[in-house]
Amino acid sequence: MRIAGIVAEYNPLHKGHMLQIKDVKKNTGADFVVVAMSGNFVQRGETAIFDKWTRAYFALQAGADMVVELPVVYSLSCAERFAYGGVKILSSLGIDVLCFGCENDDKELLIKTSELMENETQEFKTVIKAYLDKGLSYPRARSMAITEFYPDIKDYIVKPNFILALEYLKAIKRVNENLDFYITKRVNSNHDDLESLSGSCARNRIINGGNLEEVLPDFVIERIKDEMPVTSDMMSEIILYAIRTANKDTIRQIQDVREGFEMAIMREGAKAKSLDELVGKLKSKRYTLACVKRIMMNIALSVTQELSDKAFSDESSVYAKVLGIKNNSKMLLGEISKRTKIPVITKYQDMKLLDKNAYELIEKDIFASNVYSIMQKKNANRDFSEKIFYN
What SS3 state is found at 255? Predict the structure, then answer.
């Protein structure tokens, strides 16, 4: 039995995602596809447009066989930790091949570039510093430095999927260097291009109106007729409340807050009337828009740097909470039970399998779901009451 793994957000699932799953099954020889998917908060620092159970259902309808949750401590982190969390969970479940989409499918070039990022020679650091001195943000400075070493990637380095591809390869090196990987080549995949098959395009059309048939599968369109889209602006009052009732020491402990940024957060948080206004005041060359948005969500959910560091470094923090699985794929659970190195959680009672650090992570996911349910105007404590088995 061959099992492929994909790290995803499906925010929401669109036709491009269906094509990837089909491509993976066709070209990797995989009998099953397991997806590690962000929960109710995503790596752009935003709420997911639909909840994690709805999006897991979409994934199963699109051809995936099982969906497990990427804990919020990873999904609201930088690309490096997002990728690490997904790869660590999937590798620990025993997948045979990690699959991801990228604008460039030159494996050798991607490996060389990821090794440059991982090992950071003094020469590389010097080039990065030169770009920083010109006023570029660190992510942009690093990207520009990479192109000086490998000019062939200059057209790809600004693409989010290319950056994630490099982080996946770094994670493979760290987690399981024998893990195989497969690339589905993406075309016209700029996340902000509304004419492409992208999550941004789909979200824009769902929220503002537009032709959904061009980008979304029929089963997604049918299901979301009964679902209220959730947008980040709905978090404004929760985030402002969290900031205005906190002290600087509490804010300083939040994931990715450093170098006195807590003072700026408290100062601007005391005046801002909305999340958009607050983020606009706080973004800078040092703190990119996505980073600031993640910090805001982490403040609302009390995701600390300490919790993130434990998840990133402690082997006992890893587990797989199942969000959905096909009834005809139950044999997959049996195979995974033979291969897995981590607890697989399908019901509340399974939480007793977790050690202290893993329990803290899953409690944070449950808390995040309860906060998200406020925007949905639905009941809380749904993490072990939602349906996970589908035909």
Answer: coil
Provide CB contacts within 8 A for 177, sequence distance 6+. none
Number of domains in the chain: 3
Contact assessment for residue 289 and residue 279, using Cβ atoms and an 8 Å cutoff: yes
Contact by Cβ (8 Å): 345, 369 = no
pLDDT at 194 over 60: no
CA nearest to 98, candidates 187, 190, 26, 184: 184
DSSP structure string for 273-291: SSHHHHHHHH--SSS-HHH
Instruction: Identify the burial level of 261 via C-beta atoms within 10 angstroms of its C-beta, where 0-12 means exposed, 13-18 middle and 19 or more buried.
Output: buried
State the DSSP H helix or E strand holding residue 182, giving kind and residue range, or none if neither.
strand 180-185
Give me the residue label for tokens 């957000």: 9
CATH code of 18's domain:
3.40.50.620
If asked whether residues 22 and 95 sit together in one domain, one would say yes
- Region 359-382 average pLDDT: 97
Q: Are residues 266 and 298 in the same domain?
A: yes
Q: Is residue 113 part of a domain?
A: no
Domain that holds residue 128: 120-158
What pLDDT, in 10s, does the model give residues 308-331? 999 999 989 999 999 999 998 879
